[in-house]
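== Protein entry: sequence and backbone fold ==
=== Local backbone shapes as whole numbers ===
==== Amino acids and backbone structure tokens ====
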Amino acid sequence: MALTGCGGNGVGSLLVDPGRYDAYHCNDLVTRWKALTDREMELRALMERASQSGTGAVVGAVTYRTEYETVLAEKKLVQRDANDKNCELTKTFQSDQSIR
């Protein structure tokens, strides 16, 4: 835990290879982004549920926090690689109708 403050990215960044997504193509990055986003929401819900009891907050932090930080660090890497490759991680919807 003493290393958590180093680098400002949290303990999760220590567990993620910075070049992990370099070989991914845009479609692969989008798929991974969605999976990481879903897992982030799941872990956040589990931590919130655990924190509803006194001892649950400690158990939730011990059980889920490291994986949660790792997911956040991975999302940063996916976003960085997607930006480098000009990939769009989320769909932006555009009308096929012009304004008249």
